[in-house]
Amino acid sequence: DLRKALVSLAGAENPLWANVFRHRFGGDGALAGHAVGNLVLAGLFEVLHDPIAGLDAACRLLGVRGRVLPMCAQPLDIEADVVGLDADLDAVRRIRGQVAVATTPGTVLRIRLHGSGHVDGSGSVDGTGDHAKPVACQEAVDAVRAADVVLLGPGSWFTSVLPHLLVPALRDALLATTARKIVVLNLVPQPGETTGFAPHRYLDVLYEHAPELRVDTVIADTDSVGEPERLRAAADILGATVLLDSVAMADGATDGADRHDPVALAASLAKALAQSRRT
After folding, report:
1. Given strand 180-184, what is the order of strands in its sheet?
2. Residue 179 belongs to domain spanning
């Protein structure tokens, strides 16, 4: 996620390093499939002995406009309660690890963050391990509190978006900030963690994990919402209004994936901010 954020914010004047960060090694050697950007980041973290300094150096390398910060400065594990993995479809199983949660064939009910413990090959947890509360990156907390606008989404809902609300200090900052809070919904469900999700379900899950959170606006692609009233009802619980707009790439991405159109999404964000200023 850090690598993708860096590439997304990279300056357009010199695209070389952005392309390098995107590149994955080919062949069948030890590095096959690995993204060059992740290796560069790992090297920066080791050389500078500080992940924040490493990310700042990567920002300079890529000509990033802005700053990319982690939510925590130490590694974390994600754990999920999932149903639908056993013969008894209502039986709840705990699984741990980002890949296990993101690709589960079951239905994710709830997620938690904590320190590492033993995980078997299937991603199931043995019930042991450190459950210490995650410590937020102070720079990220300060940035949220000082922000004018906070965006939640789009992205992997359980493994990328919701975790920010499970780090106590960051959650407190998201609740306390005077920034306008905007949720940008995904265009389509993600196979695995959100298979079968209707648009309103993303907001239901957000409320279940952070019932105190209040949101100003929910942006959703018009063609992705089959039941606008259900989405508006879910948004209303969060204190938000719904802005339906055409924000998907008209012809799809070059790799066939569904993606937001950056220009259209920027225009929708401008509309949302104008609406919230009026209210």
Report:
1. 149-152, 180-184, 217-221, 241-245
2. 138-278
Report the domain count for the chain: 2
Q: Which of 25, 43, 62 is the last residue of a domain?
A: 62
CB 164 within 8 A of CB 134: no
SS3 label, residue 112: strand
Neighbours of 177 (CB within 10 A): 18
The length of the chain in residues reads 279
Examine residue 92 and state whether it is found in any structural domain, yes or no. Answer: no
Q: pLDDT per residue over 229-272, tens digit each?
A: 999 999 999 999 999 999 999 876 556 678 999 999 999 999 99
What tens digit of pLDDT does each residue of 19-47 get? 999 999 999 999 999 999 999 999 999 99
Please give the Cα distance from 202 to 186 (Å, whole number): 9
User: pTM for the whole thing?
Assistant: 0.88
3 state SS of 107: strand
